[in-house]
């Protein structure tokens, strides 16, 4: 086994790769060293490596550097690993001494001095030695592979430019780092100057930079590493230095600037108690360090404001909010796994003024809550995260969001669903229709993802032209709902959406927009799909009965024809559920309870049946059996409806 693997990263500039390899060759430790050259852009000629005596290989891929680095680690067959850019060099004597030191000492991470060339404040080239205590770069570090494996420290495969920095932080924050006053790494000796034709790397890749530092921050919190409190300042001030720099002042970056100002504000407020434990001198020290780091990417960089001014600016925006045109209500319960897919689908909608759109995420007292700052990566979205005091179910949670809203219109999404993914203009189209027609209620189409019995993936389109059973796809004027009593039924844990939609669309003249806008995803972990439709319907039989009666009671004085038709169809459905092949699997006591409940509904609403002739009743019955059978892959009553009534009348004459 070799002592040391050196991973050489080739990025945009590969002209100096040979010089980097020469610096490794001059160490004259061929028995102890092997080299892996990585590139995801440049083709490396393998003949270049043949003239060197050390063992070597090339890994080339179009992957991000995150997975490419991880592949390189898997190929390391040594005790230690270190990293070098193809623009830099090793110091021969210092690196030899480090190799001898590692042969006689076992360390998780060794940090050494670093020589750096840079442009001084006077604009002239300069060289300086960075003492190991101040080295904050993955270079000039030597990592023990067994330590990395034991701590499960891996590269974040979603990262590219900042993959190595993220890995380095995760490695050093999980152990005690040993320092050695030897210079091993010569950084910046290719005299690469700031390119005025390109944005600095930290500006061009700020989204990835943010993901990188937040990943480290969350790792520290998860591991209960107290250093996360110090690192909090680094996160805030490094973002501040980038976003408020002169580099960020160009017009095309202003939306992104606003996004990250909101992120800075959100993190600051979420961790205000920690932030305030540091005095002004400590904060200024971190600010100075971060400024010097950022200045290395552009020697002319200046900061255009103060940190406190940014906080005050965003605070003023939040303390004087304007009512939105549209609020999207999203009930959430342990939903972190899914809800960001929804937010992604919203954020990518085109031709939308996001200043007039709000998202109200309502947590239904779940054990796992989402850290509020995580929402702020969507800086162009106005997101509020509010909470129920106790678990009340989706219906009441949606109602909480509607009551909280001040918007002109509202719509609703489940946490695991998204905007229709084949049309990035679907929301823009709907908003255009709403502004043109000014409706009380307008309904778009729902697309459902379905896995058939033989495992085939398909999609079903529901034309919600006043006939659908989904609350999804409905866009309604908020004050209209409130003034006319359209609310979610607090008695219902299930079928709450059916109740709301049936009451609303049967009593009002709803407009229809032929816009595919809502994608109902096939999430196997959802309440509806976690069990098959048969189990779900039978388990919530009581909700089915309650929903039927309450819809009838709400609609009878507004649309008596619909109310009577609905209650008859529902009673047929209740009967079929209580007396079909599937209820044979429930206990006899439960089956009797279901059938008694069905029979009571028949007797209570027998006058409704008198409004229809035999042909119409048969059509309603067949339609209900077909609808239930479609969701349950076939259903068959064990006796006719008339036989059921006769039997129940005989068995329970006093009901």
The biggest beta sheet is recorded as: 9 strands, mixed
Number of domains: 4
Strand content: 15-25%
Task: Label the overall shape.
Answer: elongated
Cα gyration radius (Å): 33 Å
The low-pLDDT segments are 190-198
Secondary-structure content class: alpha/beta
Write up this protein.
The protein is of the alpha/beta class and about 650 residues long. It has four domains: about 1-195, Spore Coat Polysaccharide Biosynthesis Protein SpsA, Chain A (Alpha-Beta Complex); about 205-320, no CATH class; about 325-360 and about 375-530, Spore Coat Polysaccharide Biosynthesis Protein SpsA, Chain A, CATH 3.90.550.10; about 535-655, no CATH class. The strands form two sheets. Strands 1, 2, 3, 4, 5, 6, 7, 8 and 9 form a nine-stranded mixed β-sheet that branches. Strands 10, 11, 12, 13, 14, 15, 16, 17 and 18 form a nine-stranded mixed β-sheet that branches. Strand 10, helix 14 (about 335-345) and strand 11 form a beta-alpha-beta unit. Helix 6 (about 165-170) packs parallel to helix 8 (about 205-220) and helix 20 (about 540-555) packs parallel to helix 22. The N and C termini lie far apart (about 85 Å). The relative contact order is 0.05. Mean pLDDT is about 85; it is low at about 190-200.
């Amino acid at each position: 086994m070799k002592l040391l693997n050196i991973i050489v990263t080739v990025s945009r500039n590969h002209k100096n790769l040979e010089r980097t390899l020469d610096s490794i060759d001059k160490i004259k430790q061929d028995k102890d060293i092997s080299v892996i050259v990585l590139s995801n852009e440049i083709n490396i000629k393998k003949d270049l490596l043949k003239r060197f005596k050390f063992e070597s290989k090339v890994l080339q891929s179009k992957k991000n550097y995150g997975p490419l680095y991880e592949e390189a680690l898997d190929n390391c067959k040594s005790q230690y690993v270190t990293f070098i850019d193809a623009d830099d060099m090793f110091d021969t004597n210092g690196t030899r001494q480090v190799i001898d030191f590692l042969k006689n000492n076992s360390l998780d991470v060794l940090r050494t001095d670093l020589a750096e060339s840079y442009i001084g404040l006077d604009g002239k080239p300069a060289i300086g030695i960075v003492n190991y205590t101040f080295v904050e770069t993955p270079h000039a570090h030597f990592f023990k592979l067994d330590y990395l494996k034991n701590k499960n420290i891996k590269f974040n495969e979603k990262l590219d430019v900042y993959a190595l920095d993220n890995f380095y932080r995760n490695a050093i924050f999980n152990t005690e780092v040993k320092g050695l006053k030897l210079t091993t790494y010569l950084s910046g000796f290719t005299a690469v100057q700031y390119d005025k034709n390109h944005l600095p790397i930290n500006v061009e890749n700020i989204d990835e930079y943010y993901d990188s530092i937040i990943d480290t921050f969350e790792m520290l919190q998860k591991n209960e590493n107290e250093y996360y409190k110090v690192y909090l300042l680094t996160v805030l001030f490094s973002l501040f230095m980038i976003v408020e720099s002169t580099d960020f002042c160009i017009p095309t970056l202003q939306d992104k600037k606003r996004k990250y100002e909101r992120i800075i504000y959100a993190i600051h407020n979420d961790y205000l108690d920690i932030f305030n434990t540091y005095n002004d001198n400590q904060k200024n020290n971190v600010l100075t360090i971060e400024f010097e780091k950022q200045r290395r990417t552009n020697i002319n960089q200046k900061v255009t404001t103060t940190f406190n001014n940014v906080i005050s600016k965003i605070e003023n925006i939040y303390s004087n909010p304007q009512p939105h045109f549209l609020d999207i209500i999203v009930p959430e319960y342990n939903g972190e796994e899914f809800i960001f897919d929804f937010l992604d689908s919203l954020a990518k909608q085109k031709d939308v003024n996001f200043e007039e759109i709000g998202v109200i995420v309502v947590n239904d007292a779940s054990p796992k809550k989402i850290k509020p700052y995580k929402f702020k990566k969507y800086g162009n979205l106005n997101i509020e995260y509010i909470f129920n005091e106790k678990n009340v179910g989706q219906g009441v949670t949606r109602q909480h969001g509607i009551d909280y809203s001040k918007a002109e219109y509202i719509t609703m999404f489940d946490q695991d669903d998204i905007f229709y993914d084949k049309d990035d203009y679907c929301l823009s189209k709907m908003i255009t229709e709403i502004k043109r027609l000014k409706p009380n209620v307008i309904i778009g189409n729902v697309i459902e993802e379905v896995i058939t019995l033989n495992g085939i993936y398909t999609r079903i389109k529901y034309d919600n032209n006043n006939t659908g059973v989904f609350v999804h796809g409905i866009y309604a004027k908020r004050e209209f709902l409130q003034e006319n009593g359209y609310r979610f039924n607090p008695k219902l844990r299930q079928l709450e959406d059916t109740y709301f939609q049936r009451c609303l669309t049967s009593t009002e003249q709803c407009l229809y927009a032929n816009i595919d806008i809502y994608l109902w995803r096939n999430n196997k972990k959802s309440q509806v799909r976690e069990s098959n439709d048969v189990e779900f319907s039978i388990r919530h039989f009581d909700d089915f009965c309650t929903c039927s009666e309450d819809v009838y009671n709400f609609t009878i004085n507004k649309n008596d024809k619909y109310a009577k038709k609905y209650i008859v169809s529902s009673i047929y459905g209740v009967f079929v559920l209580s007396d079909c092949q599937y209820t044979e699997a429930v206990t006899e006591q439960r089956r009797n309870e279901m059938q008694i409940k069905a029979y009571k509904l028949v007797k209570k609403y027998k006058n409704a049946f008198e409004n229809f002739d035999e042909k119409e009743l048969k059509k309603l019955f067949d339609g209900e059996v077909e609808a239930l059978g479609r969701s349950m892959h076939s259903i068959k009553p064990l006796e006719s409806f008339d036989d059921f009534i006769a039997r129940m009348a005989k068995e329970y004459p006093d009901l």
